[in-house]
Records
---
Amino acid sequence: MQKEIMIQLLDVAKRFGEVEAVKGISLDIFPGEFITFLGPSGCGKTTTLRMIGGFEDPDRGDVLIDGFSVKDKKPYERDVNTVFQSYALFPHMSVFDNVAFGLKMKKIKESELRTRVEEALSLVKMEHYANRLPKQLSGGEQQRVAVARAIVNNPRVLLLDEPLGALDLKLRKQMQVELKHLQKKLKMTFIYVTHDQEEALVMSDRVVVMNKGQVEQIDSPTDVYRYPKSRFVADFIGETNLLKCTVGEEKNGLLFLRHGQTVLQASAELAVGAAVGREGFLSIRPEEIKVYETSPASQKSKADGGSADTIIPASVEEVIFIGSTAKLITRTKTPEAIVLIAHSPLAAGSALVGKTVFLSWSPEQAIFITE
Amino acid sequence: MTQHIKLAPAGTPQAGRFDWGKLFLGLPTIFWFVCLIVVPLVMTLILSFASRDAYGRIIYEWSFQNYIRFMDPLYLQILWRSFYLGLFTVIICLLIGYPLAYFIARSPKNLKPLFLMLVIAPFWINLLIRAYGWMILLRYEGIINIFLRRIGLIEEPLQLMYNDGAVLVGLVYVFLQFMVLPLFATIDKMDWTLLESAQDLGAKPFHTFRHITLPLTLPGIIGGSILTFVPAFGSFIIPRILGGSNSIMIGNIIETQIKTARNWPFASASAVILIVTALLGMLIYVKFSGRSLMGGD
Amino acid sequence: MTGKNSWPFKIYIMLIFAFLYLPVVVLVLFSFNESPIIGVWSGFSLRWYESLIGNRAVVSAAKNSLIVSLSATTAATFIGTTTALLMERKGGFRGKKTMDPMLYMPLMVPEVVFAISLLTVFTLVGIRLSFLTLILGHVAFITAFVIVTIRVRLAGTDRSLEEAAMDLGANEWKTFWHITFPILLPGIIGGALLGFAISLEDFVITFFTAGPGSSTLPLWIWGTLRRGISPDINALSTIMVLVSVSVVIIAQLINRKKL
């Protein structure tokens, strides 16, 4: 039996005047998962979320919740709740009344209402603020109330539209962890929208990377990071070295890629649709590049027929201190003089500038992307 | 368990629920806008082509005779007076209003609302009362004449009322706020660092004003001028009280034709001429002021 | 900002303020004058106020003024609120873009023209000039101002508040009643007070649309003025100035109230 699907997007599309915000997205969302729409501003992630919430009507396609079309259902007829980017706390109501609003609309009895509101407030550690007005709360506190107001209704799905966008970095990181814990505790489906790739990687079970109204990749955070399927994903998530290459040949599970006269290797298994002669990009994460001051011996002997690490000599042009490591900007000593960025714990710092180093990475860390 | 749901064909409109809310909201608006604004104005336009019988009853025979009648030098002279009084009102309001708006915009933040309130407050006094206030000051036995005689500057009281000057004073007094408010809005929004950088680059105060402040506040000047010109041009209470029979404006023609002569079609034609002239004046002004200030040099 | 205001500039500004307040001050001052001759001060007295209270015509005109302004304000506030909601909130309707600038027409058409247009319609339709026509005239004129005030407030409120209410299960009506209306209320009150002040301030519309039996305060002043100036008018004007200005100040304070 297939896994139960909670929300299904079937080729939904939406246009605002001249702008095609969402260009036909299909997606299955499963119960209890934390799924994040990630992308730059204007990629259609918020519009997609708003179509699930019922705030926008799709021009085309359908949204199913528990297998039923909600196309003609207004927001108040859908069993989903939203945490808005601006929190949208009712300014003329106390924290308690804000949280109680949804239950009052459902005509829940006074005694039960009180218990449930208090429960929800204590879940977000705001039980002592029940009588305050929203404007008397800090940004972080308002954010917690907004979450409590949504989860108190026990929705099938919770939609979160950049809920942490207005908070400062430290509070944001703390709230990321808290939200994730809350989601696990409630076993509720969270659909989360953010443009912050780190946030998406930290919190989600699955990440939907979006660009220009289309889905680029849907995968676990690790896979999205390590095995980007498009140039956009590789570039948008984290920092990477992207080299334009042409596939030369495939041998022993390795792709031999030509970048000018330089030949680079990549794992063939991870490269989808890489036929000989195909053009594409090679992505190597800076932290996967090892930096040696003297030429290292190969990790595995070539005789094994296994993959051998690539080793390229390069000169260091700049060293940027970034905290736990240093970022090295290097230029390879090949005819193309490729600029590669590597992270290195080498404490040598600026003493390395102008020196020759050896850059090395294993083919498994070099991902060939055809799009 | 994937369900198979038939998709609605692309592009079908939402389920045809009739939006009663929209209708409920729309009815009062329609009543107000159509019955109380559009229909009256259109009726006036139509009536301006009708004529009347000896008893003031309207005869529905269409002609341009009311407009032709208006071409009489008597009326044209009144139209011309209305025009130049309106124009002078704008110029004087600009000379008074610009420094005033500038002063308020540059005053400390905590005093700004107070000054603004002080300028706006007289605006909320009944038009008639404001005109009456000037009557007390300007009339033959008025305060100004009493004062001037008391200090020995004059022997006989001056005739300060019942001339164009008195009307002009009244018009400026009554419509000044229409100039000050838009000017304040633009001057207040202006980026002061621009002035500082102009001075930093060596511009003398006059040049800073001419090349930076003036062009930046042009929208306020144009807006304020239009808002001041239209009511001044069409005013009838001020000329009636302060101008008497010596300084009649087009508004007074309309009033007399309605209230005494009972010639409604002619009054309507005068009203149409008033609006059209005002619109033309504004159009020319906007073109002219835009070119001379922005395109100059 | 650079430098301080120079002295000539300061004096000029002071002269402007003097110009603004001279007529008002003189008006108010001589309402407390013992002598009936305006211009010659002969001592403080409240006799003109006493004579006002004893004047039945004035009392009835005051009553009429209140009835007209209150009724017109009520109607204009209702129309203004629904129109503002229609323009700012309810999705599109055909002709919305064309209608938007036309809503402000009453603010641009000279009042005389507006007034005689209304008079024409009332007469042609066969409505006798009365309280009704006077009130309708005021409604026609002040509604545009009410709309502007409420729209500013509505445009300043976060749309997602209404979405949040719907998201939490409130239908359109409940959303309006529990969320939109309470948040909009200061704007509505502000708009109403503004409309009330403009209605009190108005003379032109009143002059043309009032019927024989519906003399209001400005019309009483107008009638009295024909017989020459009198301290009675000063006293009445002083009271009206006080009422108008306090209404506007209250409106400003309410409208400034932050969310």
Note: Residues 73-295 of chain B form a domain with the MetI-like fold fold (CATH 1.10.3720.10).
---
Amino acid sequence: MSAPAVTESDGHTDSEGRRAERGARGLWRSSDSAIGTIRRGLRLSPEFTHGLGLTLVFATAATAGKVVVPIAVQQIIDNGIGGGTDQPDLDFVATIATLCAVLLVITAVCSYLMNYRLFRATESGLATLRRKAFRHVHDLSVLTQNSERKGALVSRVTADVDQISVFMQWGGLMMLVSSGQLVVATVLMAVYSWQLTLIVWLCFLPMLVGVRWLQRLLSRAYLRVRERTGDMLGTFGETVMGAATIRAHATEERTARRIDETVLATRKAQVRAQRLSMAVSPVAEMVAAVANAAVVVVGVLLGVAGDITPGELVAFLFLVTLFIAPMMMATEIFNEAQNAIAGWRRVLGVLDTVPDIADPGEAGHQLPRGPVRVRFEHVSYAYPDGPVVLDGADEEIEPGTRLAVVGETGSGKTTFVKLLTRLMDPDEGRVLLDDVDLRDIAFSSLRRRVVMVPQEGFLFDGSLAANIRFARPEADDADLEAAMAQLGLDDWLSGLAHGLHTPVGQRGESLSAGERQLVALVRAYVADPDLLVLDEATSAVDPHTEVRIQRALDRLTHDRTSVTIAHRLSTAEAADEVFVFDSGRVVQRGPHTDLVAQPGVYADLYASWVRSSA
Amino acid sequence: MSQGSTRDGRAPGSPVFRRGMRVLWIAIRTEPWVCALAVLGASLHAAATVGSSRVLGHLTDTVILPAFAEGRTTAAAMAAAAALLLGIGLAKALGLGARRLFAGLMQFRMQARYRRKVARRYLRLPLSWHHRHPTGQLLSNANADVEATWQPLAPLPMTLGSVLMLAIAGVAMVLADPVLALVGFVVFPLLFVANVIFQRKISPVATRAQALRAEVSEVAHESFDGALVVKTLGREDTETARFTEAAHRLRDTQIRVGRMRGMFDPVMEGLPNLGVLAVLLVGAWRLSNGAIAPGDLVQIAYLFTLLAQPIRSFGWLLGDLPRSVVGWNRVQTVLEADGAMRYGDRRINGDTRAGVRVTARDVSFSYEDTYDGAGDGSSGRDLANAAPETAPRTTVLTDVWLDIAPGRTVAVVGPTGAGKSTLAMLLMRLVDPDSGTVTHDGVDARELERGQLAEAAALVPQSTFVFEDTVRDNITLGNGASDTDVWAALRLAHADSFVAELPEGLDTRLGERGTSLSGGQRQRLALARAVVRRPRLLLLDDATSAVDPQIEARILAGLRDTELGATVVVIAYRRATIELADEVVYMEHGRVRDRGTHEELLRRSPGYERLVTAYERAAEERATEVAGPPRRAAADGHHATHEASTTAGTRGRTGRWMGEAHPGRNDGATVDTEESV
């Protein structure tokens, strides 16, 4: 990804490059190799490697504990009970048993310390990764541009990180312990007999290759399960979220059929994946049986030749059991590893995405308080792969102006306010607030001075008060009530069952669409901005309330700058100035009384508005 | 997750254990054959596992030790040994394969069965029930809760096999040497007890970790959904703090899980190993007494290493049980939820295409309140502990009377929050009134046959739900309308031009993974969806608010001109829309305040007049403001006074906080208030 737009100070760089960057935004996947991904991931969350050295020491000790019992078996059979021929040496047996018991306890403690330290390190690292990714997602403009991608972004800080967590605490741990186990077992076996060691490895080696192959099949099968599950969740979502529509049109039967289809398809995929994943264990059992048989046969032959003791041979059979478990779990482990790396890559991909709307931060300009002057200098904008929506706008808004923006759907008025509030940056030209380029203003200053109320009044699950306080945490209930009263909403507030403490429900859905807009408006008002931008913020509110709010806002913001996308032209009538948009250009500007008097887009719009409202 | 239900004991005999067993029994009864095959496989594996240790003991005594002692062996003995080992390995492999295959089959079949049951139940439950439960919870009920319920089915056959394995092993040990068997009788119960203790300790913590994981996801979902608000108010840092808090709670709980698991794993591994050492010690002593052969010793020691793993399956099963029980309770709550809409057997005058006569008599409606004192409304919504009967209710409609003659167009007008949308839902029978009746052509809506009303009436709601499907299917919803009809409906809804421009026309897929439409386009799609059904009653709930006024006017005129002849109820604010109506119903605070023609209401209903003439009055006021000194023309004296007094009463305080940022600023409110008074 190229450098953030801020560095391109004059704004007249090639828009082609920027366009390409926006297109590439869709990838969001770091292209590093697996090792590179891990290395970068570890660097991002230093907690992962914190104290790793000591953890590995404990891990080594814990792994060494795995061969204590086979060694004890060998020692006691060969030296303690003398292969059944001599009288057992009970003192020797007791000594060995006690020694091994002590070793077992020590290695068990090491195993505990390893486990705990690993959990602590990974969970701390993952929490950091979550926090960094979450913050970064909020910095990406895609969140405010494309509602469809939000679900995918949530996965970056939840499911993807969980996948890494599961791997590190189960698969990764197993991988560490198992490979250690294989190494230790192999070393011990080689000490007893290199020939038998070779035989055991010859038996299990093909499995390792086969496991990789099977794992690839399995990961495809699991992918299918995930896809089918996604479809299934989609139909469940329709059943729940589309409940009203389904009932209103009595399409229950049809929906039920769709559910059956996706549920059964999911089951089919699950069973298929299960068939593949279960296949490993019986094969591992068979391989172990072959290895056992070969060890016994060859071992006895070697024993007859005097190369090996009976205790060593029996110990070998104990050691073969150490091989089975890692083999049985290998496919699952590889699969988890693959998922974890993919998940990590996706999280890193998000973190790698340079915020196209970057905060200049501390170095940025701080705007002084007071009414804002707005200037658009030859500003153009086009959506990626889309038509030009704003075409060379050159406009100025005087401080303290109440500006109304009108125009038909798709005329560029929403783009205009998005550029004004820096939800997007222009492809060409620049937007200036008090003669400072928007891109040079620190977000902390910008977001305090400039507040926009979007059309959809989004509320957080909580009380009315909590939602309004979102804009100004230090305000107390009396402040909030006062603000409501100033906007003339005290009547509405007193009509609510629990006043300020009324729960608004998820996304505010316990309130009507109009009421949500009222709350959003109060929220913005409480934020006390110097430039207030309203994007059809009262479209679902009844006219009487709308007019009252509009009037209250006019009063309360008379020495601030306000920009309102007008859904109803009554707003334009009340404004100091009107911008009329048509096909991405401001085609007319001036006070309502002037514009309505001259033939043009505005006069037409107004005539049609009068017809529909009066 | 309800903590209380998972905290009580989990040991055999405890309520959770008994209830968990009952859940498993349901699965066994439902899938007896699959279960039987899985258990058969598990038994084969169990027997073969114990058998393999016996084979090893046998070979030690008959083949290995003699060969080492005598320094020679025979090919026949070797072949027999190999065959024995391979044979027992094959039996183990077959048993293991069958067990895992059928256990998975059973689990997935039960999951699918209950997912279908739950989803079908959702389709039958009334909308009022849906409104009581958050979307996320209903989705996780159909998915995660069902999954959790049947999770124990995966280790179940293995656990049953392990019981058998322990029994066979016990017998085998006693047969080999009763004294050595005693070691086993100490170690295996110890392992079992360790399992139970561990599960008891870890289950609540693991459950909590699961709940916290869901919380992290909820916070992220909500925060990203509200990104525009977060960004425009510059609250990214507080949102990150909120998320980090949740992430840290999850981290701390996970570390606790890790600490317990870290303790448990070495114990579960160490105990059998210590057992082997004890066997060797006691065995050497028994050997010196000549009570046993070396092979017996090897057999029992080997058995210990083999049994350690299967015994852990008890732990897995016990670990899954509490979540299974909680999941089952939640699933059962849905499956047993009553209040499903009941339907009668009457029909609406079927042989006519004329409009429906709609009446509402004395209709009142309220909904369950989620207020809980704290104001966050988060409690009391859990599926497992909902108590709708006792919860306080919020009244939306009170004694509403309505009588709409066939073919009439009636506008419902009222301030924001007056209950207009609820009235539309009642007329469509998406909800039933608390008291009073809604009738269509004289028939009580509750006595109508299922599907009757949907056939006769269509509601276009404020916000449109788009299915993940093609444009065509989104309009027909499977009612079999021809493309010609679909295009006609689209034309009437003024949606034909944008649909024609879509890449694949009617076949374009919509929704999350398809094309997304703008608000106005969605509304027109919903309108077409209603029109294509040729409804005899059309309910429009502010259905064209996102459509440009000019287009809206054309759509409404089109609806009136067609030979549909339908009764139309339209909820609207726009005056042009209202004026198209034959009659207007004016609502306020959940009551019908007045009804009559637009002109009549303008004359006699001050609230109505205030609402529909708001823009004109605003314009007039501005005219006077421009002409004379700034004065507020109080069209409604009561309101102006009320507003003024409230503002005056709080002026001191607001002046403080509004003023602290800009000391020199004189608030417009203050000036205005004084003038009004």
Note: Chain A touches chain B through 214 residues (CB under 8 Å).
